[in-house]
Amino acid sequence: MAADRLDTQVVVVGAGPVGLMLAGELRLGGLDVVVLEKRHVHTDESRASTLHARTMEILDSRGLLIHFGTPPNETRGHFGGIPLDLTLPSPYPGQWKVPQTRTEAVLEEWALSLGADIRCGHELRALTQSRVGAGEGQYVQAEAAGRDGIVQVRGQYLVACDGEDSTVRRLIGADFPGHDARRELLRADVEGIGVPDRRFNRLPQGLAVAARRNDGVTRVMVHEFGSSARPRAEEAQFDEIATIWKRVTGEDISGGKPLWVNSFGDANRQLVSYRHGRILFAGDAAHRQMPIGGQALNLGLQDAFNLGWKLAATVAGRAGDGMLDTYHQERHAVGRRVLANIEAQARLLLGGREVEPVRTVLAELIAYTPVREHLAGMISGLDIRYDAGPGGHPLLGARLPHSVLLSGEGHLTTSQLLHPGRGILIDLSGGTGAPLRPYSGWSERVSLLAALPRAGSALDGTGCVLVRPDGHVAWAGPGTGTGTAGLRQALERWFGPPR
Ligand SMILES: Cc1cc2nc3c(=O)[nH]c(=O)nc-3n(C[C@H](O)[C@H](O)[C@H](O)COP(=O)(O)OP(=O)(O)OC[C@H]3O[C@@H](n4cnc5c(N)ncnc54)[C@H](O)[C@@H]3O)c2cc1C
Questions:
Q1: Domain span at 229
Q2: Which residue's CA lies nearest to atom 5 of ligand 1?
Q3: Residue whose CA is closest, atom 27 of ligand 1?
Q4: Which of 21, 64, 157, 223: CA 20 to 30 A from 12?
């Protein structure tokens, strides 16, 4: 460490949920990480409240779900306000109601327990990146304004998790195409009002939502058809919401006590590239979207989960060429698809009479099982399949389905196997087949488990699977002896050259 400079391996900008998740993953991968966060205290803003099935699986695969207790669960979701049953095969089907403040608290405690250095009250102001191709000693240097003046933090990589108004994006002038908000929803958490619950209630004048919580506070959301998003220097005022609520529903809520007032528009933008040399982007810093159906937070957490182990392996010299670029390839494609479904939902939700025929047809289509499953797979994140390379096995690229395995240590779930954040090769013959010879060069980086799947489970009938630290299947085959074609290539691709 130089006198006026802090050196680390990765600098993360932003201790929101995405930055915290990433910090934990990087520590799990053995890296030193400094997180710069401009806030001095935690936010108590009522933001995202939904965790979807894939996010729950991810949290489970790091042993974190225990800290969430038993959150309320609903299988009923929606697509643009049209009811949609989200049930799909997963240990956590449907949506789980967890306030974002709770998710952040759990992730922060986890990242700190793993040794992340989180510095609150440090606002990123400037960035320098060493010249591309400068060889040894390449770095990114962040300049942050802290309590005691300017702090320089230098890392081999910097990840921008600094939210929708990302300073990093602005400082490097990253291309962020898309459109600003055209329409908006106004919302407020209000105490002391007695209005009936409304679930995406389309009235002649507009859309109204009201949901009374157990603590007596009602969340109201309203959009007046035909109105445009206003440029706002400050948050919407409760008077404005009460006036529009009255025009749309006829109800008077002006006597209520607003606890939190907020507006959000249908802006839709995505970075052209999630990687700019040694600077990477994750979460809202990489994509801006309307928080419909609770997808924004889930998308960001899954970005972090995809990036963490890849960046850790790259910095530690355990990764092959191009590993880090697969982060952009995989997550940009997922983001593009989610942003498209959010854009479609925004139109269905905020459009006036002109969208009614489309809504009618879609409601009919959703009654068909394959349509329902397609939409539920997209919203829950359960249908994500990455390009894992050649091979025709149905599990290739998909998440490892939840199963119970019988190993020499007793019964284990597939989620438990992922707790250490390492790759794992599972010999599903229980170790009775010939040895998995290609594996020997990777034994330091990839765990090997001999186990038997439970009869009838999703892994029954598969001989052997190679699983990435993020739970996606990198290779699957008959296993043992001659049935290992492609395993060596998969090991090399995801875990670097053999030792
Ligand atoms: C007001 C509001 C309401 C929302 N409501 C919902 C909802 O109802 N449903 C839903 O699904 N999603 C909602 N979202 C979206 C959801 O909260 C985000 O998708 C989620 O927080 C993204 O996480 P993130 O970590 O990427 O960014 P953020 O949570 O925004 O975290 C970014 C962090 O970076 C810090 N930071 C920013 N600039 C700097 C800097 N220069 N230096 C250091 N630190 C910096 C910030 O202080 C912040 O802590 C809402 C978002 C907002 C802002």
A1: 184-265
A2: 47
A3: 163
A4: 64
Give domain status of residue 426, yes or no. yes
445 Cα–ligand 1 center, Å: 34
Which pLDDT score is estimated for 389?
83
The response to whether residue 39 sits with its C-beta less than 6 Å from ligand 1 reads yes
Provide the pLDDT confidence category of residue 136 given band limits of 50, 70 and 90: low
Asked whether the predicted pLDDT for residue 480 surpasses 70, the reply is no
Into how many domains does the chain fold?
A: 3
C-alpha distances in Å from residue 245, one per residue of 179, 181, 222, 259, 441? 27, 21, 6, 17, 65
Tell whether 111 and 169 lie within a shared domain.
yes
- Does residue 18 have its Cβ closer than 6 Å to ligand 1? yes
Task: State the CATH number of the domain containing residue 340.
Answer: 3.50.50.60
What Å distances lie between residue 31 and 26, 463, 467, CA to CA?
6, 34, 21
In a domain, 93, yes or no: no
Ligand 1 atom closest to 296 (CA) = 19
Report the nearest atom of ligand 1 relative to the CA of 122: 43
pLDDT more than 90, % of the chain? 82
289 lines ligand 1 (CB under 6 A): no
* Count of beta carbons in the 10 Å neighbourhood of residue 432: 9
Q: Where among 239, 265, 291 does a domain terminate?
A: 265
Please check whether residues 345 and 294 belong to one and the same domain: yes
Q: Of 114-123, 272-281, 351-360, 385-394, give the lowest mean pLDDT range.
A: 385-394
Q: Does the beta carbon of 163 sit less than 6 angstroms from any atom of ligand 1?
A: yes
- The reply to whether ligand 1 has any atom less than 6 angstroms from the CB of 303 is no
pLDDT band of residue 133 (cuts 50, 70, 90) is: low
Q: Which long-range contacts (CB under 8 A, 24 or more apart) does 315-322 make?
A: 315/9, 315/10, 315/31, 315/156, 315/157, 316/29, 316/30, 316/31, 317/496, 318/445, 318/495, 318/496, 319/495, 319/496, 320/492, 320/493, 320/494, 320/495, 320/496, 320/497
* Mutation probe of ligand 1 site: the residue of 36, 147, 162 with most atoms within 8 A of C-beta: 162
Is residue 423 in contact with ligand 1, taking CB distance under 6 Å?
A: no
> Is the domain of 260 the same as that of 220?
yes
Residue at which a domain ends, from 321, 350, 379: 350
- Give residue 303 CA to ligand 1 midpoint distance, Å: 14
Nearest alpha carbon, ligand 1 atom 20: 297
Q: Are residues 339 and 423 in the same domain?
A: no
Residue among 354, 346, 342, 350 nearest 225 (CA)? 350
